[in-house]
Design brief:
About 25% of the residues lie in helices and about 20% in strands. It is α+β, with helices and mostly antiparallel strands and about 150 residues long. It has a domain of about 90 residues: Ribosomal Protein S5, domain 2. A five-stranded mixed beta sheet has the order 1-2-5-3-4. The radius of gyration is 36 Å and the shape is elongated. The relative contact order is 0.19.
Length: about 150
């Protein structure tokens, strides 16, 4: 027996007629975007200066700390040991994360100045852990401006 090739018995579907492109009707006008008139001149209002959240004092020591994309501006003022980060208590700002609180307190504990200065910080950029390290570095640099002998402890 010889193998014979069987021809396909499938029928092809008839070709669909092509749709003609629609032409716009002559009686309708094309839509035109109409520009609105410019608003009346706006009065210039001077920006109010940002309120400082730290008290005015003649004795201020400052330092800047950075870590990755985070940065912190730190000011030390003689006081009882309060620490504020972005106008909040540092324990609240660091969400009770003990490791971050420890990181921030490290330079103050190393120099025995924990209850000698109030610390005011503006921290921005990066994540919260990087901000904690930036705050720590800023405090260390500010403490060096208080007393250069702290370098050995830091």
């Amino acid at each position: 027996m010889t193998a014979e090739k069987k021809k396909s018995t499938k029928k092809k579907a008839p070709a669909k007629p092509k749709k003609k492109a629609l032409k716009p009707k002559a009686d309708k006008a094309p839509e035109i975007a109409i520009r609105k008139p410019a608003p009346a001149a706006v009065e210039f209002v001077a920006r109010q200066p940002k309120k400082k959240f730290m008290p005015a004092s003649d004795v201020k020591y400052s330092g800047t700390g950075r870590r990755k994309e985070a940065a912190a501006k730190v000011w030390l003022l003689p006081g009882e040991g309060k620490i504020f980060v972005n106008e909040r208590d540092f324990k609240q700002y660091f969400c009770g994360r003990k490791l971050l609180e420890y990181q921030v307190l490290k330079p103050l504990v190393a120099t025995n100045t924990l209850n000698s200065y109030n610390v005011y910080v503006e921290a921005f950029g990066g994540g919260v852990p990087a901000q904690a390290v930036a705050v720590s570095m800023g405090i260390a640099r500010a403490l060096l401006s208080v007393n250069p002998d702290f370098r050995k402890a830091l």
